[in-house]
Amino acid sequence: MLDRKILDMKDEIIQSIQKCVQIKSVEEGSKGNMPFGEGVYKALEYSLKLSENLGFNTVNLDNMIGYAEYGQGDEMVAVLGHLDVVPEGDGWKYPPYGGEIHGGKIYGRGTTDDKGPTIGAIYALKAIKDLNIPLNKRVRIIFGTNEETGSNCVKHYVKKGEEIPVAGFTPDSEYPIINGEKGIVTSKYKKVLDSKGDLILKSIRGGIAPNVVPDYAEALIKGEKQKINSIKMLKDKYKDIVIEEKDNEILIKSYGISAHGSTPHKGKNAIMNLILFLNDIDFSLDTNEFLCFMKEYIGLNTDGKSLGINLQDEVSGSFIFNLGTIIGNEEEIAIEMNMRYPVTKKFEDFIDIFKEKMEIGRLQEVYTRHKHSLYVSPDSEFIKKLQKVYEEKTGEKAELICIGGGTYAKAMDNIVAFGPVFKGQPKVEHQPNEYIEIDSLMKSIQIMAAAICELAK
Ligand SMILES: [Zn+2]
Fold first, then answer.
1. How far is the CA of 178 from the centre of ligand 1 (A)?
2. 439: annotated active-site residue
3. 84 assigned to active site
4. Options 69, 113, 114, 147, the catalytic residue
5. What pLDDT digit, counting tens, does each position of 162-172 carry?
């Protein structure tokens, strides 16, 4: 019944998604009462108006986030989606804000991420309403507008004291169900140096971002000719080091292999490779202390073992550590690190140990940013319900996934990532020629409708 009802609305659903995709909702600076710019505002207004026209009550929280609500009951379940998009970039064969249909696919920025499934969720609820399916909980479709640039939308929702769902999902990732996401910590530390002596580390730099394994790093050293010559002798002891000499200076280049910060073991860290080389050279006391500290406490391992923070759990494996950037001169050196801790562990389980270690090296904190871990037990009723729905609708086993990265689910309690991308479908979000296949979109809406019924029973 529900599936049929949804298919009957297919043309209307497609048109509504096309109209939403045609609004270029890339974040811009705030303008008047539009905190994320005009495009984002219009996409929110459009979605709330659509929800009203379909018979739902709506709430707009200061043009930052809004929702459509349906039904009765003390408790509430939610679908959390977002209407902002990343910039379109180059390489499109169809207009990125056209919403054109070619070969059974709707093309455009936001079709998969995340306007297609978000608008789809309104229609899932509409089908439930039209069929008068009895529910015991209220249902909210929540329209975030700042997922791509910080999730300040959900922070505003929470700050306003809005109700947190007892269960829900975000169709902003992939199927089957992501019930675990590692916690992510990004930290910058610096060490002040008092450089003097025969050899001076004039500058050091490497890496492009904390969450990327650096594939290149370099250091410039100045000093007496004789001392410089002794550095050249070291070269044969080390791999992937190239030396360039000019006058009283020597440039050390270090090469590694890049990889994503969630899988640093797949790369080779050019910064650490450089540091191990430099550690063999006699600089000032401070510089030596820094290099020694880095060798002993960071080293080449990627699981936090040298720092004594190698947390583990059965469902998501090991702690992950990546030294992402280094920048320095004669006065100070700063490093950025990206760390991911197992899904069942907490920030408090290791952060004090980490900070103590940084103090040993006399490094000072510049910033530490934290996104908590997420884990919902496979034994919870909530996860079992989503699994049941997924298996009934697809005939496939609803395996649970733990990931090293983070999804929109982290922004709000009691939410997990569920769809819209099916196993084997290519990654299209944030790419040129983003699209959503109409057939799999319709399937997703049917799954969402069944999941809402199950959760709100
Ligand atoms: Zn998204």
1. 14
2. no
3. yes
4. 147
5. 999 999 999 99
